[in-house]
Amino acid sequence: MPARTSHPAQTVGRAVQLLRLVASSQARHLRLVDIAEMAALDKSTAHRLLQRLQQERLLVRDPGLNGYRLGPLLYELGLAALPGTNLRELAQPALQALARGTGDMAFLLARSGFQSVCLDRVEGRFAIQTMSQGVGDRHLLGAGAGGLAILAALPEGEQQIVLTAVTPQLRRYRLTTRLLRERIELTQRRDGLAVDEGRASNDVTGLARALRDRDGVPIGSVLVASISARMTESRQREVDRRLLNCVAAIEASLRQADAGAGAAPVRRSRTRPRDTSDRKSPSGARV
């Protein structure tokens, strides 16, 4: 009996895992054989799940490319699930100021389980812009400066949970568990500044800092990326200063939005109006 009751939950978990794999793939069109291997499933099980996801419009199969991509129902569900506090909208003024100030590409990332997802990016004015991530791109926490900033800001116990979950996929990012732990420790020694020098993208250096909600929980990060030749040590210090200002501005906007959303509505009294015939105005006139 217990095996029967756990089976549907296991199936849902596997289906969600496949959706995450497709969403995080840089290829955009993953083949059945690739999905099965990455999910550690046999091909028949993976094929059955993929067919069902396709029927529900959660995935789309492109015959010409012989692969799967995310389906339209996910977009529709995403619109319905927009939070009351829209991080992308709140962060946009500060993110634009960061791109103007540095001249480089600025990114806004949010945490999504064991991954980071790019919510927005703004181009700077420097001649060479690094398109290292597009809006909607997903990567493992710890992969790239943005995901590393989030991971390093988590409590130690939660870090261990993430590390256990992402370890099987670290090879895709030229990482090992030991190397990722060293990068977390280095980020913490830098007081939360995460630096990726060419590991996430060749000849690209990224600097990032975590974003926290009003309770201090890491919910995302802000990232600046540029060609490595431009990111000298002195320039990294300047970019970090602007990153700190950007993070502070976004977190202030989040607190303000949360305070506004939590404000109690004004309640109108249902009692009879008082007699004001003897009340005086500031000028002394009767009102």
Would you give an account of this structure?
By secondary structure, the chain is α+β, with helices and mostly antiparallel strands. It has 2 domains: 7-78, Winged helix-like DNA-binding domain superfamily/Winged helix DNA-binding domain (Arc Repressor Mutant, subunit A), CATH 1.10.10; 82-261, GAF domain (Beta-Lactamase). It is built from 9 helices and 8 strands. The strands form 2 sheets. Strands 5-4-3-8-7-6 form a 6-stranded antiparallel β-sheet, with helices on both faces. The chain is globular. Mean pLDDT is 83; it is low at 1-6 and 264-287.
Main features:
287 residues, alpha+beta, Arc Repressor Mutant, subunit A, Beta-Lactamase, 2 domains, 6-stranded antiparallel β-sheet, two-stranded antiparallel sheet, 8 strands, disordered N terminus
What CATH calls the topology of the largest domain is Beta-Lactamase
- In N-to-C order, the SSE pattern is HHHEEHHEEEHHHEEEH
CATH superfamily of the largest domain: GAF domain
Rounded mean pLDDT is 83
The overall number of domains is 2
- Radius of gyration (CA) equals 24 Å
Basic shape: globular
State the CATH class of the largest domain: Alpha Beta
How helical, in percent, are the residues? Answer: 40-55%
Count of extended strands: 8
Kindly report the spatial arrangement of strands forming the biggest sheet. Answer: 5-4-3-8-7-6
What about the largest sheet? Answer: 6 strands, antiparallel
Structural class: alpha+beta
> Spans of 5+ residues with little confidence (pLDDT < 50)?
1-6, 264-287
Q: Can you name the CATH architecture of the largest domain?
A: 2-Layer Sandwich
Residue fraction in strands: 15-25%
Number of helices: 9
- Report, as a whole number of angstroms, the end-to-end distance: 78 Å
